[in-house]
Design brief:
alpha/beta; six-stranded parallel β-sheet; about 40% helix; ADP binding; Phosphoglycerate_kinase_sf
Length: about 400
Amino acid sequence: MAKEFNTIDDFDVEDKTVLVRIDINSPVDPSSGIILDDTRLKLHAQTVKELSNKGAKVVLLAHQSRPGKKDFSTLAQHAEALSDILNLRVKYVDSLFSNSAKDAIKALRPHEILLLENARFYSEETLSRTPLEQSKTHLVTQLSPLIDYFVNDAFAAAHRSQASLVGFTVNTPSAAGRVMEKELTVIQSALDNVEHPCVFLLGGMKPEDSIDVMENVLSNETADSVLTTGIVGNIVLWASGADIGEVNKQFIISKGYEDMVSRSKELIERFGDKVKYPIDVACQIDGNRVDIDSSEIPNESIFDIGEKTIAFYAKEIRNAKYIFANGPAGVFEDPQFAMGTEDLINAMANSEGFTLIGGGHIAAATAGLGLEEYMSHLSSGGGACISMLAGKKLAAVEALKNSKD
């Protein structure tokens, strides 16, 4: 896939102004506003440092959270954190395309780095439109005359068709940064060269994405089995005919996921026992974790898969040559219900097969256990990664493929 678009290697960036879209959206402490995890900043440091070392005038474009969220903030502290990581000064300007921002870009000298303000402070950034439509936005029309090249390194946001991600590719020579290049190469290569048995472990709180993945990988025979956990497991368990308790049914309905039950039922009918679901679950009863057989679930909230399911799934993982995982098995933030998520991550870490963690919360849980280095690949992008696993095209990648030479 990497050969379908330009990379940094294809451009001579010395003394050129290069706009780099990175994804440094980071968890922030709600009380202090301080960045809690600088993983993404460290990831993008490679691309930024390489461009700086090659003599580029580097302009960084990024976002933090979204309007209405508590962690929606300026990027001032991101500039400081990135400066520390790079051991280089990262300048910061608190606007995107005002005169002060433009003047700051024009004043850049080779090797210097400037971070612009949170792209989502600009209302048009949150709209999804075609690259041609995005190329006509104020953000793109105001900044394009000031830059020579556009580099998209924001794999974690590559499934979105927003102005900062696709708009510059229409009229500016564009390339993938090192994070984008590596993610696309590793994930696509893994999908193209799957060894069997291949297991997909799907959980978390976004069942529509997981069920898209399930349908794709079972239909094209990538997966030999799909192990479901989290709300995905609860939906598939309900679809199998089990009574999961009124409180859990109502939770699924309240989230608008009722149609996922019928979709899951169809997949069970089509693919039979390739679709695995919990044989026991963990509920919170009188403040304690209680593991209960799936045939006897009370009207209590399900917070994790049960111990029998953990053992069953762990065996499947140990016997597999390829394991793809997305989404935690339960409410892993609560120590009582972290067992499913942690034990399955440990099973992957001890596997001799190829292991891919699909970003998001399960990546955070893996990092929290200190097991990143035991995985074949830990993706930086949950949404983008799961879109690839579901067989969908990534808007920002397609834009790079069709970009101006």
